[in-house]
């Protein structure tokens, strides 16, 4: 049966059916061709046309060491910088974050090994349509146009103590014994990301003026997604995108990019780049946290561009709450006149389902999701 897609009832984001024989994306093959398949060519208004290199976005580096130690000056600096960045665009960086640099390098090595394998090997963990875990070589069996020039490997991480080896087990079950080292590194990396995200939730609670514990408690038992992104070089980097323009539907993204560069954010009506920095994580607010902060903190449009010379890698940890928790802003962030509620209550499980079965995440995901909820999921 060919995979049948997707959101025929959502007018802003129509998908056509993927045909009987979906294209196969094997970068080592495509690299030798002069042009790229039409399915990878993005429409004129979304193409990454840069007359010159884009201006850099200033993303404040937040020093977490002093914040975690409770030093007053560090706490007040961190909360002020985070508050103004999140009210404007939702992007900041963290340094002195406490994640071992050897673990980060190890995770990058694992990615080189994994994505360097032949396509048939990687396909042992092939992601199925409608599911969010597994290997995807572009999204050729999921979408039929505006294909991203990337390969991804995604898996679930949850902080639920009953699933303490979920990532490791995923690698063992899907890829086999030979991948136990991959599994261990990814398990450890996810645990470090979950811990870091809980610390950042304390910071966000303080910068929003509601104290350390509210969001920390909300995400304590998070059910998150880890994704390894690999962007092969492309002979026509001006025609395609590694990851198309979108806002993350998730709560908070912790991104580590290698030193190649390619992440861009749309601020003040222009695309800006975020320069790579190996000892920093780029953090951004996603739609779910925007809703939880009652719209005070922004989930901002971003994308990843590709180049024609160097492969690029990034590690993205998408923090999400436990599936059945109701996402509803705390009373202290609601003001009848100045900041009334604008978003409906929802659960992450319904929002995730929306992005995997009904709508391809883009810049309008949350608005479309709110409408879908109001129309009783039609
Ligand atoms: C819940 C999710 C859907 C996506 C992975 C996570 C968070 C970000 C989403 C995504 C990256 C936004 C751009 C489009 C997308 C299809 C992609 O290019 O990978 C999105 C992810 C997805 O649906 O797989
Ligand atoms: O690879 C990157 O720099 C960004 C990827 C991204 O935005 C995502 O996966 O959501
Ligand atoms: Fe993103």
Task: Characterise the protein shown here.
- With 378 residues, the protein is of the alpha+beta class.
- Strand 8 (263-267) and strand 9 (270-273) form a beta hairpin.
- It is globular and about 55 Å long.
- The chain is 31% helix and 18% strand.
- The chain has an eight-stranded mixed beta sheet. It has a four-stranded antiparallel beta sheet with strand order 6-11-8-9, with no helix packed on it.
- The protein contains eleven helices and 14 strands.
- Helix 3 (72-88) packs across helix 7 and helix 4 packs across helix 7.
- It has a single domain (52-376), classed as Jelly Rolls (Sandwich), CATH 2.60.120.330.
- The relative contact order is 0.17.
- The site of fe (ii) ion has 4 residues, from loops.
Oligomeric form of this entry? Answer: single chain
Q: What fold name goes in the CATH topology slot? A: Jelly Rolls
How would you write the strand order of the largest sheet? 1-2-10-7-12-5-4-3
State Rg. Answer: 20 Å
Overall tally of domains: 1
- Enumerate the spans where pLDDT stays under 50 for 5 or more consecutive residues: 1-12
CATH architecture descriptor: Sandwich
What is the approximate shape? Answer: globular
**Tally of strands:** 14
Class inferred from helices and paired strands? alpha+beta
Percent strand equals: 15-25%
The main sheet comes to: 8 strands, mixed
CATH C-level name? Mainly Beta
End-to-end Cα distance? 24 Å
Ligand names: the ligand C=C1C[C@]23C[C@H]1CC[C@H]2[C@]1(C)CCC[C@@](C)(C(=O)O)[C@H]1[C@@H]3C(=O)O, 2-oxoglutaric acid, fe (ii) ion
Order of helices and strands: HEHHEHHEEHHHEEEEEEHEEEEHH
Average predicted confidence as pLDDT: 93
Secondary structure tally, helices: 11
**Helical content band:** 25-40%
